[in-house]
User: Which sequence fits this backbone?
């Protein structure tokens, strides 16, 4: 790997369906994204990750691809996509696509061929079986679906419309290489690899995630693509511990560049299949230890993607921050994340400090996962009433992160020009719209902007390469750490609590603060206040 540009990148994730609707059909689209490139650039972003934009029946909003070589007609067409790439390039913004290679839609022609004819070469692209076992889909219900025409079942880890691809078949791996090359040729800079930990599955032996064989598949595919594009970037979706992450991303292994870890972002979940529908507060001590474990575990061995939110998670202020201090806690979360070692990922709206909404009834919920779990736990097992389940969905449903971006105070908050929207526009966003935050130097947006410019400016080296050490303060309200490189130090001190907290400071050289107060040796931090200090050793 030659040019590790992604170590300096700040990535902004767009969920196209909910970002900006240019033609008032209620659904965000590529033209809408083009119209917001200046907004993204102004924030300081250099890389965009687009959630899937390919042709799809949209049962899982594009994570069910029916044609890897076409743009969904809901979002635009190939001409608009080419223009998006061109317009992004003009602004020095790179584009990452979301490659869903663990499964295809059951409307994909490979799958349609596979169920038409057992002898078709596509039959072996998937997992078919005469019998089924107890395996469950992660979205609820069974993982095997019967196909009458074949008298066989196919395996789907996610929805019924998302059939798992059989990576044991060499042709499947070749297809994936070709898909990557096609989009790289069009000018994208890399991929987020959806559910990548599942591609080495060995169903007979009940191996689903992180099967050993997947590493040779990854190497094979990546090596092939790197022949033409040595610097393309890959970040995989997985749920690893440190040791597993290094198997994918250790510098010397040359598999993928980065792998997401969900341990910290989902620290507030309970165990079990419905664990995400509870929110358990962790102590600062636990959170600090978890941050430290990842920072130490990866330093000099590989590089971490840093994130609190994505399209599968609810808003981080609700999970980790405070609804009494939503703005301050959004800034605190941003600072904790941005000054660690790794590539920061911002999920659309996180830079505005968006919070969860309250869904008033089940009809407002659109997510396939929520619907399938409802079917299993309410309709079939009758474990919850509708109202109980709605309450749970309000806490953990993926739709919380998929509500329309609030651009301004006009109808539908500027998502479109006031026509229908595919999912509700929440009232909670009215006070958080982008247009006013851009003008306010104390907004969450402006704080993100400042953090990004720190990373791009004179603290770039220390933020990319510096070591990480937790700092001890007498109060457990504080989360603090130090970055150190050669003769430079950066101290990040956050009062991650609802209480004012007194601390003693030796160094008063403040380079960034969330509250713009004058600091002194005996200093009282406001709830969720952040200060960043620099010094020479
Ligand atoms: C990943 C995606 C999620 C999707 C699933 C199936 O977890 O992030 O949104 O539903 O894969 O593709
Ligand atoms: Ca549209």
Assistant:
């Amino acid at each position: 790997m030659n040019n590790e540009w992604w170590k300096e990148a700040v990535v902004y994730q767009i969920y196209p369906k909910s970002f900006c609707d240019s033609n008032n059909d209620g659904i965000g689209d590529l033209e809408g994204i083009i119209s917001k490139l200046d907004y993204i650039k102004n924030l300081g972003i250099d890389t965009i990750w687009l959630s899937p934009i390919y042709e799809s029946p949209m049962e899982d909003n594009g994570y069910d691809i029916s044609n890897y070589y076409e743009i969904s007609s809901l979002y635009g067409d190939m001409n608009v996509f080419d223009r998006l790439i061109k317009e992004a390039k003009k602004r020095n913004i790179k584009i990452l696509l979301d490659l869903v290679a663990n499964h295809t839609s059951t409307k994909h022609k490979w799958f349609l061929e596979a169920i038409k004819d057992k002898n078709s070469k596509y039959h072996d692209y998937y997992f078919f079986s005469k019998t089924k076992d107890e395996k469950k889909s992660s979205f609820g219900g069974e993982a095997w679906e019967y196909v009458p025409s074949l008298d066989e079942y196919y395996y789907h880890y996610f929805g019924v419309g998302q059939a798992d691809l059989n990576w044991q078949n060499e042709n499947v791996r070749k297809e994936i290489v070709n898909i990557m090359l096609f989009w790289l040729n069009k000018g994208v800079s890399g991929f987020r690899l959806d559910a990548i930990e599942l591609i080495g599955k060995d169903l007979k032996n009940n191996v689903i995630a992180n099967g050993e064989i997947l590493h040779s598949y990854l190497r094979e595919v990546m090596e092939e693509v790197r022949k033409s594009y040595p610097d393309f970037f890959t970040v995989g979706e997985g749920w690893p511990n440190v040791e597993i992450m290094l198997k994918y991303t250790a510098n010397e292994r040359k598999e993928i560049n980065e792998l997401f870890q969900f341990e910290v972002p989902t620290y507030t979940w309970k165990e079990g299949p419905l664990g995400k529908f509870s929110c358990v507060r962790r102590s600062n001590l636990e959170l600090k230890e978890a941050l430290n474990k990842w920072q130490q575990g990866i330093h000099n061995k590989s590089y971490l993607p840093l994130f609190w939110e994505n399209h599968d998670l609810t808003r981080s202020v609700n999970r980790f921050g405070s609804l009494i201090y939503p703005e301050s806690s959004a800034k605190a979360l941003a600072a904790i994340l941005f000054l660690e070692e790794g590539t920061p990922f911002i999920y659309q709206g996180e830079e505005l400090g968006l919070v969860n909404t309250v869904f008033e009834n089940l009809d407002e919920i659109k997510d396939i996962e929520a619907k399938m779990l409802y079917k299993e736990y309410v309709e079939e097992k009758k474990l919850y009433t509708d109202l109980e389940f709605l309450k749970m969905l309000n806490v953990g449903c993926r739709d919380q992160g998929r509500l329309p971006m609030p651009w301004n105070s006009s109808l539908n908050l500027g998502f479109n020009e006031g026509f229908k929207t595919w999912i509700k526009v929440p009232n909670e966003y009215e006070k958080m719209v982008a247009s006013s935050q851009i003008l306010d130097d104390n907004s969450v947006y402006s704080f993100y902007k400042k953090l990004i410019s720190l990373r791009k400016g004179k603290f770039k080296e220390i933020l990319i390469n510096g070591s990480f050490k937790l700092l001890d303060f007498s109060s457990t309200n504080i989360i603090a750490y130090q970055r150190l490189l050669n003769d430079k130090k950066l101290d990040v001190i956050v009062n991650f609590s609802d209480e004012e907290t007194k601390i003693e400071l030796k160094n008063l050289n403040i380079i960034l603060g969330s509250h713009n107060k004058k600091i002194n040796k005996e200093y009282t931090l406001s709830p969720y206040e952040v200060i960043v200090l620099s010094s020479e050793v």
In short: The chain has three domains: 5-101+170-448, 109-155, 465-534. The first helix runs from residue 30 to 35.
